[in-house]
Structure formats: structure tokens, C-alpha cells
């Protein structure tokens, strides 16, 4: 962090989870930090339809059903951590687009962002995955 920078305590913990990696390390870290900070958690799952976009457009209503099912899956994944931390307010949503882009669109200057390093990473921040690299490259420390 630059010497002239000043820090404040995060007011929210923003955590990105993916369906292709184990969310436990990210959720453990996010709920632990939120408990210590007395801050709420916002869990985000980014959906980048890519090749599915044409299919989503072709079948009216299917895209909404798919997103609703994805949101329910994300909520089911975090239910265990939310139950273990009943004093931590937690909301979830699904955002369209690449993971790093979705997190950065939602991020505020006073957020603590928790992301994993990818499917081969044992703990958050231990290695530089695409989302972590993208977020840190475009969001300088304040």
C-alpha cells in the first residue's frame, strides 16, 4: 500500500463463488472476516453464458429459469455458513458476465473482496487465478 494511502475498515464483505470450484475456503474466509468486522456479506456468482447466450435468447423464459436455479444452488451452498454465523447478514445474487467484471461492477471502495485462486487453489489468495489477477490489476489499493 502506498505510504500516502489511508485505510478504513471494510463496511461489507463481497465474496465471489463459482460452480466449478469448492466455495468452502472463500466462504470460510468471508464469514470469519465479516464476523470480526461486524459487516454484512454479499455473495456473488457470475454467469458468463458465452456459447449458451444464443440458446438463452432462443428459448424465451429458459434463461430466467436457469438463472433462478443457479441462484438457488448458490444459496444452498452458503446456507451452512450462514447458519453458523446467524448475526452476519448475508445476501446472494447471480450477475451476468465474467467473474472479475461482475465483482468489480458490484464493488465499492469500502468493500473487502474475497475470491479464490481457481479450482487448483487450496485457500483464497494463495495463488493468482484469472479472477483474482483481473480484480487486483484493475482495482488499486486505497
Automatic annotation (TrEMBL):
InterPro entries for this protein: Rossmann-like_a/b/a_fold, UspA
Domain UspA: 11-116
One Pfam family hit: Usp
Gene3D superfamilies reported for this sequence: HUPs
Protein name: Universal stress protein
Amino acid at each position: 500500500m502506498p505510504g500516502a494511502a489511508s485505510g478504513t475498515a471494510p463496511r461489507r464483505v463481497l465474496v465471489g463463488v463459482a460452480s466449478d470450484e469448492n466455495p468452502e475456503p472463500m466462504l470460510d474466509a468471508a464469514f470469519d472476516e465479516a464476523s470480526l468486522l461486524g459487516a454484512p456479506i454479499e455473495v456473488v456468482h457470475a454467469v458468463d453464458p458465452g456459447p449458451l447466450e444464443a440458446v438463452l435468447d432462443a428459448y424465451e423464459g429458459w434463461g430466467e429459469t436457469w438463472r433462478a436455479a443457479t441462484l438457488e444452488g448458490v444459496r444452498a451452498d452458503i446456507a451452512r455458513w450462514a447458519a453458523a454465523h446467524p448475526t452476519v447478514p448475508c445476501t446472494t445474487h447471480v450477475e451476468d458476465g465474467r467473474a472479475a467484471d461482475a465483482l468489480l461492477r458490484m464493488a465499492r471502495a469500502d468493500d473487502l473482496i474475497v475470491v479464490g485462486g481457481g479450482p487448483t487453489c487450496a485457500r483464497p489468495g494463495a495463488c493468482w487465478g484469472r479472477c483474482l489477477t483481473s480484480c487486483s490489476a484493475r482495482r488499486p489499493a486505497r
